[in-house]
Design a protein that fits this description.
This protein has 8 helices and 7 strands, in the order αβαβαβαβαβαβααβ. The protein is α/β, with parallel strands linked by helices and 253 residues long.
């Protein structure tokens, strides 16, 4: 067993692949769906995962069976909650190496029916939230000599369909924020990536559209594997943007 681990560690090191062992990883929206799959994947790679969510009890259920993981109550749309969450992590884990901006919501309504409050909630969660988390962690990552941020974007940041104007605006904005911070943070040894995901079999779609054809969607664990791929690139390499689609994607040609 030990021999196998050593061989794989050696071959990993030979390719320059970075290890996630003992890295402190903050995953927002970690309580279900893609966030849950990312928590499981990165904990399995040896990371110390902080599964952060407004649904705290669900986050606890996700973190409990994972080695080195714990749950954190955090509302990405609320600046005091973001600041308190980071303080909690610095107090307990002592550092933050990786941020996965994954929490997201959609309110699917025609523009006439979408209230100003609905619009603000989607933008606050999907765009202002990632901005506030980046703003909170970047100075720490700089002090630590580097870090990584992965922003979970969507094909909704590349094209548009009806009844999702707030979601599209938030995700096009998040793609822009991601590229802007990639440029700004790279000289400080912080890697920023926009991961553009296609449709996934998560409650995000399955709860709202029970009749959806699940064969057109991908397993969120596949997207979680792509997150790990991004995070384990050699030190000298950064992936600013990566698109991961189901073979049968309907929102992309
Ligand atoms: P999901 O609804 O299954 O899970 C989202 C999680 O985020 C939930 O646990 C929820 O409690 C949490 N959350 C919501 N608001 C929050 C807040 N203010 N603070 C903290 N946590 C909050 O969704 P999912 O499908 O796993 O989506 C994850 C990400 O992937 C989202 O950013 C979504 O936009 C994106 N995405 C999803 C799909 C898809 O088809 N499911 C496709 C492309 C991109």
């Amino acid at each position: 067993m030990n021999v196998r681990v050593n061989i794989s560690e050696e071959s990993r090191a030979a390719t320059g692949e970075q290890s996630l062992r003992d890295k402190v990883v903050l995953v927002t929206g970690g309580a279900r769906g893609l966030g849950e799959a990312v928590c499981a994947n990165l904990a399995e790679a040896g990371a110390r995962v902080v599964c952060a969510d407004v649904r705290f009890e669900l986050a606890e259920q996700v973190a409990e069976p994972l080695d080195g993981a714990r749950a954190l109550r955090l509302d990405v749309s609320d600046w005091p909650s973001v600041q308190a969450g980071l303080e909690d992590i610095l107090g307990n884990e002592g550092r933050v190496d990786v941020l996965i901006n994954n929490a997201g919501i959609d309110i699917t309504l025609p523009v006439d029916e979408l209230s100003v409050e609905d619009w603000q909630r989607v933008i606050a969660t999907n765009l202002t939230g990632p901005f506030m988390l980046c703003k909170a962690v970047l100075p720490r990552m700089r002090e630590q000599g580097g870090g990584q941020i992965v922003n979970i974007v969507s094909t909704a940041a590349k094209r548009t369909w009806p009844n999702a104007c707030a979601y599209h605006s938030s995700k096009w904005g998040l793609l822009g924020l991601s590229h802007a911070l990639h440029v700004e943070a790279r000289p400080q040894r912080v890697k920023v990536t926009a991961l553009v995901a296609g449709g996934m079999r998560t409650p995000f779609l399955l709860d709202r559209f029970p009749d959806i054809d699940v064969s057109t969607l991908q397993d969120p664990r596949s997207v979680a594997r792509s997150v790990r791929f991004v995070l384990t690139q050699p030190e000298e390499t950064v992936i600013p943007e990566l698109m991961v689609l189901p073979m049968t994607e309907t929102s992309w040609p």
